[in-house]
Amino acid sequence: MSSSVEAITVLSSDGDEFKITVSAAKLSKPLNWMLEDVCFSDDCDEVPTIEVNSKTLVKVIEYCEKHAPRANSGASDSDAEELKKWDIEFMKMDVKDILFHILMAANYLHMEGLYDLACQTAADLMKGMTVSQIRKIFHIKNDFSSEEQEQLRRQHPGCSFD
Amino acid sequence: MAKLAAASRQDFISQLPDEILCLIISLLAIDEIVRTSILSKRWKGLWRFISTHLEFDGRLMIMPLAQRQNPEEAFTPYSQLSTLLTEGVVGYGKAISSMLFRHSSDLLSCRFIHFPYSVISEEVGTWLKIMRLRNVKHLSLECEFYDIGTTESFLHNSEDDGEKISKPNFPTGIFSGLCSLELIYYTLRSSKPFEGCQNLKTLFLKNLNIDDETIGGIFKNCVGLENVCLLECFGFTKIEIHNPNLKILQLYALILDKLVLFTEKLEVLLLDTVTTPMSMQIYSLSLSILHCYNHSTFGSMLALTEEKTVLKAFHLLGYFRYFWDSRSNVLQTLTRLSIDLDLNDAIECILFASFLRLCTCLQTLEITLPAVQNDDLVNRYNYWNFRAACNFVKNQLKFVYLRGYKDNNQEFEFLKHIITKGKKLETVAIICSQQIDKQRLTALTRASPNLLLKLNFKIHSVMEEISELQDRYLYE
C-alpha cells in the first residue's frame, strides 16, 4: 500500500460507494488486513465490497471517524469522558432496526468497541423491564402455549416472572 | 409503505446468532437473565450457554421487581416483607445450585453476592465445586453484610453464632485453577482452600477477618500472584510476602506491625491509611510507582481505636533508609510518586525534598494537599523560597499534579520554585476547589519552553479518588 493514500473507497452491500479514512479503517481488523493487502495500491481500480448495507455502513463509518484519533494516539481522560457522552448520543437510534444491523456489522468487522457498545445498548433496553415489556420493545412473539409457560414458571423458583 | 411498517414490526433481535444474544443477556442481572427464557421458544434456555460472565446477586433474586424500589422495608427485621424474604433467602441458594447445574457451557467469570444464610447452610461450597467443573477463571464472592429478613432462627442451636455467620467452610484447594479471586466480608481461619493456587494472579480481599497464620499461608500457597489488594481487612498484624512475581500491591486501611516484602518485580506499591509498622523491610528492583495516602476514614478510625499512628508519606520518604532493604534501588527505579503532603508544613517539605534530591528517574509528582488545613503554626515558615533548586527539579521533573490547591503562600512558593526552575517541565496541573489568583501563576517566568499550565476546578472528593485508583490497577 502506498503511504500517500489517506482515504479509501469501499462498496456497501447495496452497491453504494463510501469513503473512509485510513486511520478510521484501522479500527477494524478485516479492513486493516485489506489495507495491508495490494487492493488499495494506486494501480488497482477494484473497489472492495463490505457485506453491510448502506444505512448501517454510514453509522459504522461515523463511529470509526470519531474514535480513530483516540485509538491511534491515546488521548487524555477528559477526552475519554467526552467520547463516552458521544457514544451514548450515537446509540440513541431506532431500536427495532439499525441497532441489530450494527451489532452484526461490528461482529463481522471485528470492531470490539462498537460491538460492546451495541450489546450494552441492547441490554440496557431490557434492563428493569417485565417480560411483556421486552416482547413489546423488540416485537418478540410469545409462541409458548399456556401449559408450557406454567411449566417454565415452576422450573425457576425464586425468580419473579412479572 | 405497508411493507415498511411490516418490516419495523419484525423481530430483529431473535435473528441474531446465539453467541451475540448470549453476550447481550449476560449483561443483565441474574433474575432478568432467567426471565428471558420465557420470552419465546427462541430464547428458552439460551442463558445456559452464556460463556462470558454470570452474576448471581442474591439481593435481586429474592426480590420481585416491584419490591426492589423499596429495599428499606426488606432490611427491617420482622416486617411483613422481611418475613417473606426470609423464605426467599432460604430458597434462593437452592435455586442458584439448580441453575448452575443446568448451565451447560464453560464459564469464564462468575460473581456471587449472597446472604449469611448460604454460608451457614454450606451452599457456598456447593457453588464453588460447580465453578471448578465449569472451569471458571475469575471468581468473586461477597457475603451481604446486612442480613435480610431474619435468619436468627437457624442459628439458635449453634454456640459460636457470631463467627459462623460469615465463616465459610471452603473445601481444601477449592480455589486452585482460578486466575483471579475476590473475597468480600468473610472470616477466614485456614489457608487450605488456597492450596494449589499456583495460577492465581489477582487477589482482592476486602473486609475480611483473617488471622496471621491464614494470611501467611495464602501468600505461601499463591506463588504466582502478580496483583494483590487488601482493603479494610483486620485480625492480623503482619504481612510477609516473598514472591518474585508480584507486580502490584495495594494496602488500604490496615493495622500492621510488620511489613516485609521480598518482591523483586514489584512495580507499584500503594499504601493508604496503614499504621506505621514497627518493622518494615521492602526489597524490590523494579518499583516505579509509589502511592502513599491517608484517605480512608475507616482506616483512621481503626488506627485510633488501636492507638496506633498512621504512616505518613513524608515519614516514609524522609526515613526511607530504615524501610527499604539496602539492596533495593528504589531511587533509580521510581518514576512516579503520588503522595499526601502539606506544602505549608516546612518539616514535611524538608523530608520530602531530601528524598527528591536522590531520585534519578522520577518524572511525575502527584501531590494531594490536606482537605482540612492544620492550624498548627509551628512549622509555618517559608521553605521553598530560599532553596536552591536541586538537580532533580532542574533536569528531571516533567509532570506535576497538585490537588486541593488553596493558593496559600507556601503552596504558591512551591509552584514558583518548580515553574521558574524546572527546565524539563511539560505539564503542571492544578486542581483546586476554590477561586485562586490565576494572574500570579501565569505571570511566572517559565524555565521550560514547553510547559503547559492547567487549572481545574473540582471539589475534592476522596471517595472518588480511592475507587478510581482501585479500578486503575485492578482492571488494567
Explain what the structure shows:
The complex is a heterodimer of chains A (162) and B (476). Chain A has helices at residues 22-25, 29-36, 54-73, 77-90, 98-108, 112-126, 131-138, 146-155, and strands at residues 7-11, 17-21. In chain A, helix 3 (54-73) packs across helix 5 and helix 5 (98-108) runs antiparallel to helix 6 (112-126). Chain A contains 8 helices and 2 strands; from the N terminus they run E-E-H-H-H-H-H-H-H-H. Chain A is mainly α. Chain B has a domain at 341-476. In chain B, strands 1-2-3-4-6-8-10-12-14-15-16-17-18-19 form a 14-stranded parallel beta sheet. In chain B, strands 9-11-13 form a 3-stranded parallel beta sheet. In chain B, strands 5-7 form a two-stranded parallel ribbon. In chain B, 38% of the residues are buried. At the A-B interface, helix 5, helix 6, helix 7 and helix 8 of A face helix 2, helix 3 and helix 6 of B.
Topology summary:
The complex is a heterodimer of chains A (162) and B (476).
Chain A: E1 7-11, E2 17-21, H1 22-25, H2 29-36, H3 54-73, H4 77-90, H5 98-108, H6 112-126, H7 131-138, H8 146-155
Antiparallel strand pairs in A: 1-2
Helix pairs in contact in A: 3-4, 3-5, 5-6
Chain B: H1 2-8, H2 18-25, H3 30-35, E1 53-57, H4 58-61, H5 71-75, H6 80-102, E2 109-114, H7 116-120, H8 123-133, E3 138-143, H9 161-164, E4 180-184, E5 187-188, E6 202-206, E7 209-210, H10 212-221, E8 227-231, E9 238-242, E10 248-254, E11 258-262, E12 268-274, E13 279-283, E14 289-293, H11 297-305, H12 313-318, H13 320-323, H14 330-333, E15 336-340, H15 346-356, E16 364-368, H16 391-395, E17 399-403, H17 409-421, E18 427-432, H18 438-442, E19 452-457, H19 462-474
Parallel strand pairs in B: 1-2, 2-3, 3-4, 4-6, 5-7, 6-8, 8-10, 9-11, 10-12, 11-13, 12-14, 14-15, 15-16, 16-17, 17-18, 18-19
Helix pairs in contact in B: 6-8
